[in-house]
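Bench notes, afternoon.
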Amino acid sequence: ASLRVCQVYNLLLIQSAESEKYWLNVITVGIRKKFPGAIAVVQQNRWRDIVDLGVVAKRLAAMCGIQFVKDPVEIAAQRALIVADVLHIKEAIKINSVVPQTCRSAFQLMAEGFKTEDDTGVACFVQARQELHAAIATTEATHPQVMGSCGDACLILAATLPFYAARDALEEAEEKYRRALALRPQFTEVLRRLGDVHVMQSKLSRITETAQRLRVRAGSRYMQALLAEWERDQAVKNQVTHPLDHLFQLSPADFCAVSWASAHFTNFEEIDFSGTPEVGPSALRRCIGKKPKVLSLNMAGCGNNDNDVMTYLGSKCGSTLESLDISYCHKVTGIGVVAMASFVELTSLKLDYCTGIEDDPLKKVFEACTHLVHISLRSLPRVTNKSAVYLGKFMTSVETLDMSDSPNITGSIMNEVAQTCPNFRVGKANGCFSIDDVPMITMGRVCKSIQELSLVNCIKVTSLAIRGMAHKCKSLTALNFEGCIRIDDAALAAMSEPDAFPNMRKLNFNSCDMLGSQGVTELVMAHPHLVQLRLGRCTQINEVAIRRISRMCSRLTDLSLEACLGCNIHATSQICKSLLELKVLSLANCPLVDDTTVSQMAQHQLNLVDLDLSGCKLITDTVIKALVRNNTNLTSLKLYGCPRLGDKSLLEVGQCSVLLQVFSVAISNYITDHGIMQIVTGCPLLKELHATNCPRITQDVKQLLGLQTPWIKLSF
């Protein structure tokens, strides 16, 4: 690998007849095809003069994990290969980038503005900003580099303008940078620029608290940029993953140079394209390479992955690929699925939400790929038992099977797998309404290795299923029967028998309304080592059972008692005092939970990460302050339907919960624009904000947040 990177290094940086031929016949030809509006083509500049060779060399070195003895940029500068002006301004703006034809003059004006420091330079930036505005309004509304450059112009002008004009320019720069980040979330240069904006805004602010908050936001932006760059470089350096994100951070010119050079490096064992819908089919094929050694390939959410890519992949990686994930690839249909039959060494396959997959092609895959260990077939509406039955016929090594939300796959498939695969460990069939007790009884008879079972909303499952596994499936550690409305105390009685499930740690019986207090009491006495217990919407559980939970299960980290009528002041206070390791707690819709309970929670619960107090109508602003100050690691806080809460609570949340990602508050007449803005500005990691039925939140703030925070899922 080091030898290959040195060869590419010589071609890119060392001036010789061979390198000149390489630049002329390879890279220049490629750039003319890909970017016909390039400055290099329009002005007939030499391609080597406008590429940022320092960035390219750094990427090449990171790909192979080597270091240059001498800085490549110094070598290039000594040989007069890079224009001095470009070297001088490259940290301020990527003038050396290939830019859209409509913005070429604006970028040239900005280059002239950097060269001069008098009024002429300011005039250049003003005119450049006007031209970039026009381009954004017409043809370049989705170009992140143009958006970021417009923000650069506003940021530079802000330093030369009077107070009010400077403040307006900074607000405009912030808007443009945020829009650029919405188009490319890990744009490290823009993250740093946005931090610079917040620093300048803090200097102009006349309110001490606002200035301090802006400096904190600036620091978080700088940290985001550093972490994104570190993660990207580390992944590429170790050759563990190649997600193309490290290329999308580059300018188009650098991207082209690196993509040409990286053709020499095709020894990646794991490639991850997940969540990159902008990657086209040709890029997918090119990055896989001509002689790949890929063992794991993740293309989940890659919308351009189609049958041609799968056919190419089958011809190149048939003998090496062991793990494949094409979830949400709706363009993959019969031909693409048939190509997967060539992956004879495949051990892990995920086809979730691939709505174009049908039975006949899938049969061929299951016939050929007999070594599959982990299989996921979630939400495949066209797949039925005709193909799924081949899992039990041709495979004996299946350990994990997920067939959730696939309505045409029945319980007989899991029954078949349980009989033919002795190492079957994890089974998930959430939302499969046709599943009954038979598969679980079969597991108890022949499959002793099952460890995790999830049957959410399988309404035909009864207590006989648990009775059939008791004393037999002793390796079982997690059961999820949420929404299985026929589960009653007989199931809990079977679980409470001595040595029935000695390794049980996680139980989910949400919405199993037939469970009673006696069954729950016996359950927790038999399983004191539980770490998760969810009994939400089990309305028959009384105070005695809840007190027994708090006394017996001291190791609980996840507890849900949503809508349990037994959650009165005494029971909830006992929970807060006894279960000191809780990280996830839900007391939603418990009508007796009030300030006393929350004050006890604030005093004793110091490790909460996810808290749900929705529907607790007696809670006031008084206790929220202490709660959020003592639980600074909160990532999710739900206060939906607490009508007595107002801006005071939101102010405390915005100041203390810097890690908050999900916040919900609704149905309150005391929440205004001020409180909502405190949440948005004080929680830099916020992803979801729900504030429905709050009449004092104005339409202007809703529209403003929709424009300036596109990364936040808003609900008003």
